[in-house]
Amino acid sequence: MDRLTPDGGAMGAAYWDSGTRARRFAARTAGSAASDPLLARVRRVVRSSTTVLDVGAGPGRFSLALAPRVAEVVAVDASAAMGSLLRRAAREARLANVTVVTGRWEEVHVAPADVVLCSYVLPLIEGAAAFLAKLDAHCGAHCFVYLSALSPDILSEPFWRHFHGRPRQAGPTYLDAVAVLDELGIRADVEVVEVRVRTRYDNVAAAARSYREGLLLPDTAVVRRELRGLLAQWLVAEGDVWRPPLRTTPAAIIHWSPAAGSPPGRRKTPGRGREPGGGRAPSR
């Protein structure tokens, strides 16, 4: 997508800072953490003295949900628009223990935390190994990486083939993440969960606008008409909105803990692995 959108990149900070994308994303995900399996999993290991580092926090879906239960949350995101939304939401919720850091994870300087989490960010990262190694180096007790258990492009693949005349290269999944962690000497355990699909559209035209952007199609009358026709047959009418024909999709919670007695910032040498018996084999 970066190659096909050289003027602004596909999903970097410029993408979210353009127009109303960040606000629309925040509205779509507001309040969704309460029923998300990741929040339930993280809550099992935090207490009032815990410090949390949320990497790729976006508008604060998990940061805001965890803040009332922990000592401090540091939320990192490359998008200034996302950071602004998170700061405002924290003020409105009177959460004084949320600190927002704007910048790419690979470049920011923040203190380590007891719990590190990263939700639906890793597939967008070119240098996954360095990204994961830095997460691990900043983790004192538990690190969680959350991402789709199937290629996130699978739902749009038929439309991509229809308009572009060729298959779209499948995006990475949790299996790729586990493989990279293994190369770094980090043995993680994996829990596959079902996550509710929250995407809703007011009408087919609104859906067509969203899909056209994701499919990198030109904004022409012919494309709009053809895309609306395809989506009208595929989307499901639910009350006064339209939704994709899936109620849930599988996601993976990848979790690991640092080696016993190894404080954050002092980790094993990547590639050497742990001592025998020092970690659990990943569930695949």
Task: Please tell me about this protein's structure.
This protein has 284 residues and is α/β, with parallel strands linked by helices. It folds into 2 domains: 13-151 and 169-197 and 246-256, Vaccinia Virus protein VP39 (Rossmann fold); 199-245, no CATH class. 33% of the residues lie in helices and 20% in strands. The chain is built from 10 helices and 9 strands. It has helices at residues 13-17, 21-29, 37-43, 61-66, 80-92, 128-137, 157-164, 174-183, 204-214, 221-234; strands spanning 51-55, 72-77, 98-102, 113-119, 139-148, 189-196, 236-238, 241-243, 248-256. Strands 3-2-1-4-5-9-6 form a 7-stranded mixed β-sheet. The chain has a two-stranded antiparallel ribbon with strand order 7-8. Helix 6 packs across helix 8. The chain is globular and about 55 Å long. The two termini are 29 Å apart. The relative contact order is 0.13. Residues 260-284 have low confidence and may be disordered.
List keywords for this structure.
284 residues, alpha/beta, Rossmann fold, 2 domains, 7-stranded mixed beta sheet, two-stranded antiparallel sheet, 10 helices, 9 strands, globular
Break the fold down into its secondary structure elements and pairings.
Elements: H1 13-17, H2 21-29, H3 37-43, E1 51-55, H4 61-66, E2 72-77, H5 80-92, E3 98-102, E4 113-119, H6 128-137, E5 139-148, H7 157-164, H8 174-183, E6 189-196, H9 204-214, H10 221-234, E7 236-238, E8 241-243, E9 248-256
Parallel strand pairs: 1-2, 1-4, 2-3, 4-5
Antiparallel strand pairs: 5-9, 6-9, 7-8
Helix pairs in contact: 6-8, 9-10
